[in-house]
Amino acid sequence: MTALVKAKPEPGLWMESRPVPEIGPDDVLIRVKKTGICGTDIHIWNWDAWAERTVPVGLVTGHEFAGEIVDVGRNVTDLRIGQRCSGEGHLIGHHSRQSRSGKFHLDPETRGIGVNEQGAFAHYLRLPAFNVVPLPDEIDDEIGAILDPLGNAVHTALSFDLVGEDVLITGAGPIGIMAAAVARHVGARHVVITDVNPARLELAAKVADCTPVNVAQEDLKDVIARLKLAQGFDVGMEMSGNQQALDQMVENLVMGGRIALLGIPPGKSPVDWSRIVFKAITIKGVYGREIFETWYKMIAMLTNGLDIRPVITHRFKVAEFREGFETMRSGLSGKVVLDWT
Ligand code: NAD
Ligand code: ZN
């Protein structure tokens, strides 16, 4: 089979021929149809310090996928050949206290496909049957291929009650934009999304009914006045990993405001803790997706009117993967999907 491999410890990915993975008794074999390129894949392509530390050379990359089950292990009774699916890319252990109490997404032994384990940028993917998420007919393969990042957005957005709340999202990357669509879908009042990249803000306004704000040009205090918010935003979702964005969020939240942090800062970053204390702000770190509650909720929303398709701005055949990665690296795109069929 063909796969996109981190074949050398230097920037790039290489298309190589690999044997089709062998499955164990509790696994399934998936024929991959569509895959999404993630910011994580860009780190791996660039071979930055994190990637060098984390990713073994020789790894098949990729973790955002949709496909079809073509083989099942002998213990697998609830999935069948021919079934369309996506799947959770976090492979968890089943021994920790967290796992044994059903909080699978908090298992400390979690390993990621396409990061620590063989990934989905290949014609075939082996996955534990436990991780498979069957897709209903209403969700096609390209949407199926971006459920992983949509899941990040949904996990973050559902961290706090948003009904009737004024919401601030910092960072209009694909995940921030999808979070804006989710916040609107579940009944937020005002949804404001910030960025410093006009292309991303333009896309945000196309995908979600939200107020885009370029914080390089406009002060959030003016936006609060314009929208006639009494004190500021009730809930913040940090989706940029940028220090200034987090500072602005804390500054413009109401007393008792709540923040869900998904964005990953590049290193240690200073926080004005006394501001957080005196504003009585609650902060929650968000990692991955809740397994499998986030998957349940997002599929329910997608089959009930949530439309995030316009966040996919580019589609390429896998042979054109270099263009796909260049497009993603430009910072001007939304999601980029590769076609393996
Ligand atoms: P992305 O890099 O595509 O988007 C981030 C956006 O933030 C960019 O559009 C950038 O222009 C914008 N930005 C930069 N400075 C800003 C500022 N001062 N104010 C507002 N916006 C600013 O990222 P993405 O793929 O959408 O992911 C969002 C974040 O979530 C990233 O930090 C990513 O690493 C992180 N992430 C975390 C998890 C997790 O499990 N916690 C999972 C996936 C992604
Ligand atoms: Zn991803």
TrEMBL record:
<dbReference type="Pfam" id="PF08240">
    <property type="entry name" value="ADH_N"/>
</dbReference>
<dbReference type="Pfam" id="PF00107">
    <property type="entry name" value="ADH_zinc_N"/>
</dbReference>
<keyword id="KW-0479">Metal-binding</keyword>
<keyword id="KW-0862">Zinc</keyword>
<protein>
    <submittedName>
        <fullName>L-threonine 3-dehydrogenase</fullName>
        <ecNumber>1.1.1.103</ecNumber>
    </submittedName>
</protein>
<keyword id="KW-0560">Oxidoreductase</keyword>
<feature type="domain" description="Enoyl reductase (ER)">
    <location>
        <begin position="12"/>
        <end position="338"/>
    </location>
</feature>
<dbReference type="InterPro" id="IPR011032">
    <property type="entry name" value="GroES-like_sf"/>
</dbReference>
<dbReference type="GO" id="GO:0008743">
    <property type="term" value="F:L-threonine 3-dehydrogenase activity"/>
</dbReference>
<dbReference type="InterPro" id="IPR013149">
    <property type="entry name" value="ADH-like_C"/>
</dbReference>
<dbReference type="InterPro" id="IPR020843">
    <property type="entry name" value="ER"/>
</dbReference>
<dbReference type="InterPro" id="IPR013154">
    <property type="entry name" value="ADH-like_N"/>
</dbReference>
<dbReference type="InterPro" id="IPR036291">
    <property type="entry name" value="NAD(P)-bd_dom_sf"/>
</dbReference>
<comment type="similarity">
    <text>Belongs to the zinc-containing alcohol dehydrogenase family.</text>
</comment>
<dbReference type="InterPro" id="IPR002328">
    <property type="entry name" value="ADH_Zn_CS"/>
</dbReference>
<dbReference type="InterPro" id="IPR050129">
    <property type="entry name" value="Zn_alcohol_dh"/>
</dbReference>
<dbReference type="GO" id="GO:0008270">
    <property type="term" value="F:zinc ion binding"/>
</dbReference>
